[in-house]
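Page 37, continued from 36.
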């Protein structure tokens, strides 16, 4: 056996005067779970994205608890909670076109600076005891407008920072960083709120958003710049719409993403009501519940980052069953400890959906249309108010457990129909 193994290609190469090292297991591994971190530009982009999401999640916890305490209305909570998504629905097509036409770094920097300004303003209002629930509504709409332009530019920028063969890995790691923020930030915000008040939370939000701006500054010039043609924005937006709607698989992926998002998105904005009425807990518990959603999403993102490019369409459908089962369980078993576990499962389902959808779309569109493609994905997030607003009203009428259970059943039913009827999606890699 030893003799046979010694007479392999390295021996033959020595005879020809060429030295080739023997093939080892390590040399056959071309991509690892964390391989995108080899790029300094990607590290800064990842860090900035993670910090921005962290600041947003801390703000979301403080905002939700303060609004419900000020109003004791699930309807108003739903309005405020969904307010940041509404501008995404309206502005996302324009924002995606802007991301394809102008330098993406400049767009991201302007948007991040806007987030710092909003956080600073709210900090001052809270610390001076001038805060009203209507200010949260105004801030939510403004923050949504910022994110409508920030997210498409940031995501369309990513293929310029990492090679194409690492795009799947990079998107998954970005989502993993976001999910980490979903875990840590709400828990921190809940504890700080309980012991130091909302003003301290918003001070930390401002600090985190400011550091995110600095990380973006450090990203060096990338190899491909956005289009510098003189074509009008409206013309390019219409061109993008025609392109997206003309691609059958891309069009159906958007529809599927919108459907699933509408069914699971109300859960987090309505968590303050669940904490108060179902679990009878405080702000610390709200933070822990929100963190479990992030922990579930994080575990899913690491799995996606490590998976080969096989049956990702089937995985996307399966996530509807996972999320739906978790929401139904929350409705049937109204206990805090059970809720922690089920929100972990729900976070895995809903949090893993986004990176898979993004990967499938980004791989199927041309570089010239990637910003507009991300604009379309942001429109999906912008549809949240279409579910959150009526869900808030329904909670005031029927209570949170019935509403959450109905959403879970909707996910299970829609997932079953899609699994049976859409063979092309089941087979999509």
């Amino acid at each position: 056996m030893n003799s046979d193994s010694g007479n392999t290609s390295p021996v033959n190469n020595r005879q020809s005067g060429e030295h080739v090292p023997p093939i080892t297991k390590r040399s056959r591994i071309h991509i690892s779970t964390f391989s995108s971190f080899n790029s300094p530009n990607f590290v800064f982009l990842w860090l900035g994205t993670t910090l921005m999401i962290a600041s947003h999640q801390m703000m979301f916890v403080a905002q939700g608890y303060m609004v419900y305490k000020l109003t004791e209305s699930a309807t108003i909570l739903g309005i405020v909670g969904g307010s940041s998504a509404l501008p995404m629905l309206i502005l996302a097509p324009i924002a995606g076109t802007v991301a394809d036409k102008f330098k993406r770094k400049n767009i991201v920097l302007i948007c991040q600076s806007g987030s710092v300004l909003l956080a600073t303003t709210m900090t001052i209002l809270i610390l001076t005891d001038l805060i009203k629930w209507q200010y949260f509504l105004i801030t939510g709409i403004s923050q949504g407008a910022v994110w409508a332009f920030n997210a498409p530019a940031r995501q369309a920028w990513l293929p310029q920072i990492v090679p194409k063969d690492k795009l799947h890995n990079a998107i998954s790691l970005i989502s993993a960083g976001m999910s980490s923020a979903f875990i840590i930030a709400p828990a921190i915000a809940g504890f700080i709120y309980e012991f130091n008040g909302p003003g301290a939370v918003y001070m930390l939000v401002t600090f985190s958003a400011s550091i995110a701006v600095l990380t973006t500054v450090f990203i060096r010039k990338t190899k491909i710049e956005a289009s510098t043609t003189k074509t009008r924005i409206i013309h390019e937006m219409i061109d993008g719409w025609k392109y997206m709607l003309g691609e059958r698989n891309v069009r159906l992926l958007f529809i599927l993403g919108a459907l699933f998002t509408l069914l699971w998105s109300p859960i987090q904005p309505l968590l303050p009501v669940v904490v108060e009425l179902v679990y009878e807990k405080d702000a610390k518990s709200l933070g822990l519940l929100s963190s479990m959603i992030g922990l579930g999403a994080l575990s899913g993102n690491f799995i996606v980052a490590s998976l080969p490019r096989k049956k990702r369409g089937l995985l996307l459908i399966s996530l509807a069953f996972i999320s739906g089962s978790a929401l139904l369980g929350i409705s049937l078993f109204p206990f805090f400890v059970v809720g922690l576990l089920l929100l972990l499962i729900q976070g895995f389902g809903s949090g893993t959906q986004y990176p898979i959808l993004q990967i499938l779309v980004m791989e199927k569109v041309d570089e010239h249309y990637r910003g507009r493609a991300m604009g379309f994905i942001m429109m999906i997030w912008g549809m949240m108010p279409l579910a959150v607003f009526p869900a808030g009203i329904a909670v005031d009428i029927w209570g949170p457990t019935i509403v959450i259970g109905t959403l879970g059943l909707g996910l299970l039913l829609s997932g079953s129909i899609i699994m049976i009827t859409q063979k092309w999606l089941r087979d999509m890699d």
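The mean pLDDT is 80. Flag for discussion at group meeting. The chain is about 80% helix and 0% strand.
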